[in-house]
Amino acid sequence: MNKYLAEFIGTFFLVLTVYCCVVGLAGGAAAIFAGLAIGSVLMVMIYAGGHISGAHYNPAVTLAVFMRGKCSIADVPGYIIAQLAGGILAALVGKVLVGSPAAAAETASFVPALLAEFLGTFALCYVVLNTATSKASERTGYYGLAIGFTVTAMAYALGGISGGAFNPAVAVGGMVGGILPWGGIAYFLIGQLAAGALAAIVFRIVSPGDFE
Question: pTM for the whole thing?
Answer without folding.
Answer: 0.95
